Amino acid sequence: MASARDDRGTEPSGPHGFTNDFDDFSESWFRIPRGPMPPQMAYEIVHEEAMLDGNARLNLATFVGTWMDEHANRLYAETFDKNMIDKDEYPKTAEIETRCWRILADLWHAPDPESTIGTSTIGSSEAAMLAGLALMRRWRARRREAGLPTDRPNLVMSAAVQVCWEKFCNYWDIEARLVPVSLAHPTFDGHDLASYVDENTIGVVAIMGVTYTGAYEPVADIARALDRIQEDTGLDVPVHVDGASGAMVAPFIQPEIAWDFQVDRVVSINTSGHKYGLVYPGLGWVVWRTRDHLPDDMIFSVSYLGGDMPTLALNFSRPGAQVLLQYYLFLRLGFEGYRAVHQHTQDVALFTSGEIARMGPFELVSDGGDIPVFAWRLKDGHTDNWTLYNLSDKLRARGWQVPAYPLPEDMQDVTVQRIVVRRGRRVAARDFLKDFRACVEYLDGLSGPIPVEREGSGFHH
Fold first, then answer.
1. Which residues form a coiled coil (predicted)?
2. How confident is the model at residue 303 (pLDDT cuts 50, 70, 90)?
3. Would you state the torsion angle of the CA atoms of residues 242, 246, 252, 257, taken in this order, to the nearest 10 degrees?
4. CATH number, domain containing residue 106
């Protein structure tokens, strides 16, 4: 006679048959259990732990994609065992990787996509590291050829730069020259750039989609400032574009902006496939203007179908499935599909930011008109009873994750909140705004200040 099983698939035990070993599991979390356990039991432990995470669809802080369609999910399940680095074992995946970065080279107006080079990475941070290394090694090679010292390289970028660039400078002993933002210059725009650039500058980073506010830095203006510096000093400084978000948005809904390889000084671009490329994490891309802009000593050759294929990456083992998902989306959506998705997402961002702007307490810092990301601050003098940190906590109690944090150097006394809209849905926006208004109404109704429980933000870019 078959024994009864509970709805979790484990054998019931206990005096009445209503409990099982899973209910009594109390092993240390920091030692491997002495013996094995049934797979259903191990699954339930991990499953129920993961349930305590926030709902990814209500996480308005992250840029990372949280949804793909059923065909993509099926493809993912069929290919998650592929190791991207094993190009000889998975030659078609390797070929599809090449198709993807060449598609991006064409999308970003490379002079000759057939003669450039690129690669997939774990994310745009790894892609940025590779681009930064290429800048450093090309600068070092030029200096050595001229018989000049190479011991004091620097990289110029905005104080609002994503933390991966500060990591890059730290890891490879490069001086990070951070240009402050201000009310007069809320983004890095080439103003006073001559004060930061010298003969040891390996390059300048321009950001298409600042993580703090979603704003584009004007790449063409930065390049023109560098043109003037070259005219005055002879220094020829290249630009790398960190397009982690914007490089997969601007080509589709803001084609009039000159930011990519159409700007002659731009030598490399990175992006995140898992942000507005619409793929699950983690996937990044980096493409160089021409193969000459990537030093040969960064390229390794692997056997591929009886020949050689170039490869470059910091990670040796990494998933190939996301590369296939990116190619699936290029085929599935095409240019017009990406344009439609991003335009709708931006429309939702503009709608939501407009509704918040019409509320009395807030003024917008950005409205979602660049990438579909916007930020706001409390109006001066509105209240002494609550802050945006309190509003963030109230929203989190309703499931919404909306971070509050200070702006970067020289504007750190300004606290903002930010929303990232991903594959925007007006229904979700209306639900959020209903909860948002209720939270603000509660806070505005307080008769005195909320006690300070914590200072600052736990949110990091």
1. none
2. low
3. -70
4. 3.40.640.10
Judge residue 295's burial from the number of C-beta atoms within 10 Å of its C-beta, 0-12 exposed, 13-18 middle, 19 or more buried. Answer: middle
Structural domain range at position 126: 73-330
Q: How far is CA 407 from the centre of its chain?
A: 18
Q: Total structural domains in the chain?
A: 1
Question: Cis before residue 282, ω within 30 degrees of 0?
Answer: yes
Mean pLDDT (whole number) for 89-107:
93
Q: Quick check: helix, strand or coil at residue 416?
A: strand
Give Cβ neighbours of residue 454 (< 8 Å, ≥ 6 apart). 389
User: Closest Cα partner for 417 from 442, 437, 393, 389?
Assistant: 389
What does each C-alpha distance from 373 to 259, 273, 352, 366 come to in angstroms? 19, 17, 10, 8
Alpha carbon distances (Å) from 25 to 20, 32, 49, 253, 330: 9, 13, 13, 53, 46
Query: Of the candidates 347, 348, 373, 374, which has an alpha carbon nearest to the alpha carbon of residue 363?
Result: 374
CA nearest neighbour of 304 among 92, 82, 80, 79: 92
- Structure confidence by residue, pLDDT tens digits, 31-44: 888 889 889 888 98
**Residues 164/125, Cβ–Cβ less than 8 Å:** yes
Task: Let me know if residue 311 belongs to a domain.
Answer: yes
Q: What is the DSSP letter of 213?
A: T
Range with lowest mean pLDDT among 19-28, 258-267, 282-291, 403-412: 19-28
The residues near 186 (Cβ < 8 Å, ≥ 6 apart) are 213, 215, 365
Cα separation, 304 vs 316, in Å, equals 16
Give CA–CA dist 365/375, Å, rounded: 5
pTM equals 0.91
CB of 368 closer than 8 Å to CB of 353: yes
What DSSP letter does each residue of 304-318 carry, written as one string? ETTEEEEE--S-SS-
pLDDT band for 24, please (50, 70, 90 cuts): low
For residue 184, tell me if it sits in a domain.
yes
Least confident segment among 44-53, 111-120, 248-257: 44-53
Token pair 């390229």 is at which residue? 299
SS (H, E, C) 40-54: HHHHHHHHHHHCCCC
CA 371, 373, 377 angle in degrees (round to 5)?
Answer: 140
Q: Is residue 203 included in any domain, yes or no?
A: yes
281 in any annotated domain: yes
Burial 343-358 (b: 16+ CB within 10 A, else e): ebbbbbbbbbbeebee
Q: What angle do CA 138, 140, 144 make, to 5 degrees?
A: 120
232, 192 Cβ separation under 8 angstroms? no
